[in-house]
Write a structure and sequence with these properties.
The complex is a heterotrimer of chains A (119), B (343) and C (353). By secondary structure, chain B is an alpha/beta fold. Chain B has helices spanning 15-26, 57-67, 134-143, 179-193, 213-222, 274-283, 322-342; strands at residues 7-11, 30-34, 49-50, 55-56, 73-76, 81-87, 90-95, 100-103, 105-108, 112-114, 131-133, 156-163, 198-203, 227-230, 235-238, 244-250, 255-261, 263-268, 270-272, 310-312. With 353 residues, chain C is α/β, with parallel strands linked by helices. Chain C has helices at residues 3-12, 30-33, 37-48, 64-68, 74-91, 101-116, 118-132, 145-151, 153-158, 181-184, 200-207, 227-230, 235-249, 262-279, 295-303, 307-310, 320-326; strands at residues 22-25, 53-54, 95-98, 141-144, 165-166, 171-172, 174-178, 211-212, 256-259, 292-294. In chain C, a hairpin with a 4-residue loop joins strand 5 and strand 6 (171-172). The model of chain C has no long low-confidence stretch (mean pLDDT 96). Classes of the chains: A mainly alpha (119), B alpha/beta (343), C alpha/beta (353).
Chain lengths: 119, 343, 353
């Protein structure tokens, strides 16, 4: 381990894995829910993820992405949304009729808007 | 008809007891219903509205009041059945206070007790001001006001499922069945009463087993924006603003989650009632590992006690909703009449 | 917060703490890190309270650190603890007073194992006899030494020369209490007050005039661990947990922390220095550190003993602000004087200098 000025001890303080609901930002959730109200209906069965083309060879996981949007954990989303191929197979599978394809599109939009301070 | 003058004692005046007693009286039997509280009605008296359709509990209570108003039905309140034993061709029933009743048959309908939330110490019930139970919340609904202990309006409420159920730590491995749907019902009621208050349900599994329960769950998400987080709350504490803080794993995100809440509602489960346990001990009735009464066969003998002339009705055998309790009580009536006719 | 709710729980977790005649077993690390604590436990019990406490110089480590570090097997540690019981039996003592929370957890775990699996007790008797020729009686009680100070807290309060009160305002000091995980998390019934709302330190602090802070991360582990600090590269593990506690208690502006576990006291003290070096942050009021004291040190201050005799200067976070609040006059220039009056080298980087 490289010892730097801030790390003269040979160790640092571990990073938190906590989702702190009171400091996370749910603007993306609000935007996605407004653009695609069926987003509320996801009950995290994972059917979308099982059938997902992108999920077979990348980390893309729509079920988990929905959870992160709901909790306001934006950081993991930035890369995730780019991985969807928008094929729409998840739409066919969803037992709650969530317009999953539009959820991804709305999330991608929200992230662009967030970066432009438009949310 | 000789059997019609038969005397039947019903132990317990909750939903199962009232259904069984009223039905038997209507059929012409002499019935004595023994209720431990001042009036029959059981837990229903504490409930504001019922799942899945949020029907006022009062409607069902008035139904049962009418159902149990019958010249053949005598109601003894403030009394418990302490022991039953076979005596001659009938059953001798010992009551608290020393009185006895000679019966031809007995229906045990001693029901359940709500789990005592103090026992889950980590949630701080009885310590933190704004930790309440599902029953306490119904009382708030009855008063028409959901508020924090200091009277202020809550902006975020969390409902914790499985408190005292599915939990080895409190010696209850069983599922109480009705708490999931109760939570969803209460979440919707809070959202309707306080539209700006966020509501979260913390669940391990959503067990929406009854008719229209799953639909209610869907409705809560689609129209009422109720949030669901899959994970068992591990502890509650308060911060410097006297706001509750919970720890839970968001198991779908795979990460621990911390959240401040104004009110925590503990969805307390069902346990075998203490009076029923004493009666079972004294009378030699078998109980299962979940402490509820064990019938002779859980498929086709689930009203049979194994004691001659003694039958089981309702939640003294297992957690049940009101509909299933009524059906189980009617089945107990059928078994009782079949028994009396065969004597 | 409803205090009666806590009292309800405390009433359910009352353990038997004997009144007298203790067989004392020391900690491996406490004499180094809190140099006066064990000595003053003995002094307070013997001189202030008139109790009989017996020590046997043949007593050894319980090997708990090795056990939790995966290098000492359970059979071995049972034999080591059985040997301590044999020393107590030979000296005629039935009540064990344990200075260390790790040891206390080990003793609890072993006694519970013997209760539920009697064959393990028989095997331990056999192993000990083969190895040492000794036999032993299972003790009637085990107490952590914080249990014992807890039991006599009111007697100590009656002899108090100082109180946990800020003399400039008359207000109670705001105290954070921290219980070692192995004191009651493994077996809540062995801890006074149980695991969720332990009473052992709360009882002392309240008897001596202080107020307890109930902050959100009160029950969180200090981060000590075993493998986590033994391996240098893993220490971020431990450091993270401690920082989490400090961030949670900071808004309450605590005057001090009292702990009953060697590891917790040490890490909550030393990591304040490390966090200051890494993050530049201290968590006490006005940029100071928060003094972390053992319960013996607090009892010693209350009874009027000299803070430098109690060993408070050997903490990284110095107690001078606390002593000032309590009205205890102690000359900082005497902190590092040896017994013969010569001056010891002064440590660098002390907090609250």
């Amino acid at each position: 381990m490289r010892v730097t000025q801030s790390n003269k001890f040979g160790f640092t303080i571990n990073r938190s894995r906590l989702i702190d609901y009171d400091s996370s930002d749910r603007k993306v959730r609000e935007y996605v829910t407004l653009r695609e109200p069926s987003f509320r209906l996801c009950f995290a069965c994972g059917g979308c993820t099982a059938t997902c083309t992108a999920g077979q060879h990348t980390s893309f996981n729509l079920r988990r992405m929905n959870t992160f949007i709901r909790r306001g954990e934006i950081e993991p989303l930035r890369e995730e949304v780019k991985r969807c191929m928008l094929c729409g197979k998840c739409l066919l599978v969803c037992p709650r009729g969530v317009n999953t394809r539009n959820v991804v599109a709305a999330a991608a939009e929200a992230i662009v808007k967030l970066e432009r301070n438009e949310l | 008809m000789k059997t019609m003058s038969a005397h039947i004692v019903v132990a317990g005046g909750g939903v199962a007891g009232m259904e069984a007693a009223g039905t038997l009286a209507g059929m012409g039997y002499r019935v004595t219903m023994i209720e431990k509280d001042d009036a029959p009605g059981g837990h229903l008296l504490q409930w504001h509205a019922l799942f899945p359709d949020r029907r006022p509990a009062d409607e069902v209570i008035s139904h049962f009041r009418k159902h149990t108003e019958h010249p053949n039905l005598r109601i003894i309140t403030g009394t418990t059945v302490e022991k039953v034993r076979n005596h001659g061709s009938g059953v001798l029933v010992s009551l608290s206070g020393g009185a006895e009743e000679q019966a031809d048959a007995v229906i045990v309908a001693t029901g359940f007790e709500l789990f005592d939330a103090h026992r889950k110490e980590e949630y701080g019930y009885g310590i933190y001001d704004n930790v309440i139970t599902s029953a306490d919340l119904e009382a708030m609904f009855n008063r028409g006001l959901v508020a924090k202990a200091d009277g202020s309006v809550p902006s975020r409420i969390g409902l914790v499922h499985c408190v005292g159920s599915r939990d080895e730590k409190v010696n209850n491995n069983h599922c109480s069945k009705v708490c999931c749907v109760t939570a969803v019902k209460q979440a919707i009621e809070i959202r309707k009463m306080l539209p700006s208050c966020e509501v979260f349900c913390f669940y391990m599994d959503m067990r929406m087993y009854g008719p229209y329960y799953e639909e209610l769950y869907r409705e809560s998400q689609e129209y009422h924006n109720v949030n669901f987080i899959r994970g068992k709350v591990s502890e509650a504490s308060v911060n410097i603003n006297n706001r509750l803080v919970i720890k839970v794993e968001d198991t779908l995100a795979g990460r621990p989650l911390k959240m401040e809440l104004d009110i925590i509602v503990l969805m307390v489960g069902m346990e075998m009632a203490g009076a029923g346990m004493r009666l079972a001990e004294a009378s030699g009735m078998k109980r299962g590992i979940n402490r509820f009464l064990e019938s002779t066969d859980h498929h086709y003998g689930n009203n049979l006690s194994g004691l001659r002339g003694v039958f089981y009705a309702g939640t003294c055998t297992a957690p049940m909703n009101i509909t299933d309790t009524i059906s189980h009580a009617r089945a107990a009536v059928t078994e009782t009449v079949k028994y009396l006719n065969s004597r | 917060m409803k205090p009666e709710g806590k009292k309800r729980i405390w009433a359910e977790y009352q353990k038997e703490i004997p009144d007298d005649h203790f067989f004392y077993v020391r900690s491996c690390i406490r004499q180094t890190f809190f140099a006066g604590s064990e000595q003053y436990f003995l002094k307070i019990l013997r001189d202030d309270l008139g109790k009989d406490v017996y020590e046997d110089p043949r007593h050894t480590t319980c090997t708990g650190i090795g056990y939790h570090g995966d290098v000492v097997p359970f059979e071995t540690i049972q034999a080591v603890v059985a040997r301590h019981f044999a020393l107590a039996t030979e000296a005629g003592y039935k009540h064990i007073a344990i200075s260390c929370v790790t040891s206390f957890g080990i003793y609890s775990e072993i006694l519970e194992t013997w209760k539920h699996f009697p064959e393990t007790l028989e095997r331990t008797r056999e192993n000990l006899y083969k190895a040492t020729g000794r036999t032993f009686d299972v003790p009637e009680t085990i107490s952590h030494t914080s249990d014992i100070i807890y039991k006599f807290r009111d007697q100590i309060a009656r002899k108090a020369k100082y109180h946990l009160i800020d003399i400039s305002t008359g207000e109670p000091l705001k105290v954070v209490e921290h219980i070692g995980c192995h004191y009651s998390k493994m077996f809540p019934k062995y801890g006074v007050g149980g695991a969720e709302f332990p009473h052992v330190l709360v009882g002392m602090v309240e008897a001596w005039g202080g107020d307890i802070i109930d902050y959100p991360e009160r029950r969180h582990c200090c981060g000590f661990g075993f493998r986590q600090y033994l391996v240098q590269a893993n220490r971020g593990y431990s450091l993270f947990a401690t920082r989490k506690k400090f961030e949670s208690m900071q808004p309450y502006r605590p005057d001090m922390i009292i702990a009953n576990c060697p590891g917790c006291t040490m890490f909550m003290d030393r990591w304040q220095y490390t966090i200051r070096e890494i993050d530049g942050i201290t968590y006490g009021a006005d940029g100071q550190g928060i003094p972390v004291l053992t319960y013996e040190e607090v009892a010693g201050l209350v009874l009027g003993y000299n803070p430098w005799e109690l060993g408070l200067q050997y903490h990284n976070v110095q107690s001078l602000p606390l002593l000032r609040k309590m009205g205890i006059k102690a000359d900082p220039s005497e902190r590092f004087l040896a017994k013969d009056g010569s001056r010891l080298p002064e440590p660098e980087n002390l907090i609250n200098g």
